[in-house]
């Protein structure tokens, strides 16, 4: 019995020692902070493979880009090549210079330089007795058919700046304009301030493209690329974007207060205003919603011709 007791004690001590070692080992696994050493060595090959894969992908991308470029029509790609952050988007309200003695007066040099840079016009050749007759069409007020009758009778071609809703709601008038030799041109889709749209180029572009698409749907023709900014509001940035879309911006050198349908000037007043302010290279803006303009138009055309003026199309504007 005395011999058995020491043996039992030895066995108990042996198991107790193994338990402590296992506990200590488990504690080391749970509490030991991670190191970068082995992890780093393991990751290096992976990093090298990633680098190789990136290079391979880059080569494949270059191949695909090269192949795609062969299939892309350059005319379909719009390249904005200026740092647009340097272009001012301050909204400017266009106003033509006054007319004295049948001559267009001074336009600020800064404005002239801006217009020249971005293909914007408010006046044609000041040395020639030419007039460009244009009408703005935001909505139909029942007078456009009569205006077209007069233009046909007098053999005068005009430009009609139209919005997308106008096209959608007046398809037969649009077709007639085209059939009778007038140009139908872009006045935007929703008639906004273009500088406000210029904060997002895609929204800006949509104002043009939606109107173009509506015109194409009605006439099966592409729209001639002249644009009149709604309300005459513009900025350097909006002029730049308009130019990049392939358009010339068309302002005006004559307009009068004719758009308020419930406050129309007398016909004789309208005739006198137009005649007194006529001038070489004039871009005349009339609103087709005006009853006074419509009734005055035959006399206006006759009197201007008597004064030696010729009516020209915007496509002849230089």
Please describe the topology of this protein:
Blueprint: H1 4-31, H2 37-71, E1 92-93, E2 99-100, E3 103-104, H3 109-117, E4 120-121, E5 130-137, H4 144-154, E6 159-162, H5 164-169, H6 171-179, E7 183-186, H7 194-197, H8 201-219, E8 226-227, E9 233-234, H9 236-244, E10 248-250, H10 267-276, E11 282-287, H11 291-306, E12 310-312
Parallel strand pairs: 4-10, 5-6, 5-11, 5-12, 6-7, 8-10
Antiparallel strand pairs: 1-9, 2-3
Helix pairs in contact: 4-11, 10-11
* CATH architecture call of the domain at 113-316: Alpha-Beta Barrel
Cα Rg: 37 Å
Q: SSE string, helix = H, strand = E?
A: HHEEEHEEHEHHEHHEEHEHEHE
Coarse morphology: globular
CATH topology of the domain at 113-316: TIM Barrel
- The count of strands amounts to 12
CATH superfamily of the domain at 113-316: Glycoside hydrolase/deacetylase
What is the overall number of helices?
Answer: 11
Please identify the top-level CATH class of the domain at 113-316: Alpha Beta
Distance between the termini: 127 Å
What structural class do the secondary elements suggest? alpha/beta
């Amino acid at each position: 019995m005395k011999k058995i007791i020491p043996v039992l004690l030895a066995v108990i001590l042996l198991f107790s020692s193994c338990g402590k070692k296992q506990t200590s080992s488990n504690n080391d696994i749970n509490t030991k902070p991670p190191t970068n050493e082995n992890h780093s060595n393991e990751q290096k090959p992976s990093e090298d493979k990633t680098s190789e894969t990136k290079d391979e992908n880059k080569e494949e991308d270059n191949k695909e880009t090269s192949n795609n470029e062969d299939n892309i029509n350059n005319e379909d790609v719009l390249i904005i090549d200026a740092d647009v952050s340097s272009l001012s988007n301050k909204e400017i309200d266009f106003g033509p210079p006054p007319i004295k003695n049948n001559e267009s007066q001074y336009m600020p040099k800064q404005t002239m330089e801006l217009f020249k840079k971005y293909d914007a016009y408010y006046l044609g050749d000041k040395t020639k007795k030419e007039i460009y007759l244009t009408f703005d069409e935001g909505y139909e007020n029942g007078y456009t058919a009569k205006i077209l009758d007069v233009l046909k009778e007098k053999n005068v071609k005009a430009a009609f700046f139209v919005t997308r809703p106008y096209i959608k709601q007046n398809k037969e008038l649009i077709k007639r304009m085209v059939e009778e030799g007038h140009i139908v041109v872009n006045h935007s889709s929703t008639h906004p301030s273009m500088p406000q749209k210029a904060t997002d180029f895609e929204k800006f572009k949509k104002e043009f493209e939606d109107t173009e698409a509506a015109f194409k749907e009605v006439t099966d023709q592409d729209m001639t690329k002249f644009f009149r900014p709604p309300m005459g509001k513009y900025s350097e940035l909006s002029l730049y974007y308009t130019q990049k879309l392939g358009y010339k911006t068309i302002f005006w050198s004559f307009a009068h207060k004719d758009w308020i349908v419930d406050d129309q000037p007398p016909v004789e007043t309208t005739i006198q205003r137009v005649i007194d302010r006529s001038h070489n290279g004039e871009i005349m803006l009339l609103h087709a919603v005006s009853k006074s303009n419509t009734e005055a138009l035959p006399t206006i055309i006759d009197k201007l011709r008597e004064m030696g003026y010729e009516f020209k199309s915007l496509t002849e504007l230089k």
